[in-house]
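Fill-in record for DUF4268 domain-containing protein.
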Amino acid sequence: MFSREESARIRKEFWVSYGKSFPRKWLLYNTKIKDFGFKFVADRKTAEVTLDIESADEEQRELLFDQILSLKNILESEYLPEVIFDKEYVLENGKLISRIYIVHSKKFSIHNKDTWGECYAFFNETMSQFELFWYEYEDYIRQAVV
């Protein structure tokens, strides 16, 4: 078991190491849609690449989610076959969001450096595919909130 300080140091090392291994500017929150962005998630047991729709406006969140859901077949067949759609995803803090995500299928722990390399490769490949999808269908997705 790690102390809180040691765990924080390891998490910081994980992210700094990832940034150095794959020095690239990712899209993330630069979608120009409020409360709509891509994220890397890593914790003690899992790693994911997500598209989170966090709008407090339930109608807007639903419209954006449904707009992307209408592209599900394309997203699965051309970009990310393992994608999961969750219209009502509850974060640890209790906040309800919509999440479209891919889970790293290999064994992973942010506290185990031996698992980092495969996770970094997963992050890089998966986020690249998510971004390609976004850039191809951005105008269509934006129509949900115009």
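KEY FINDING: The first helix runs from residue 4 to 21.
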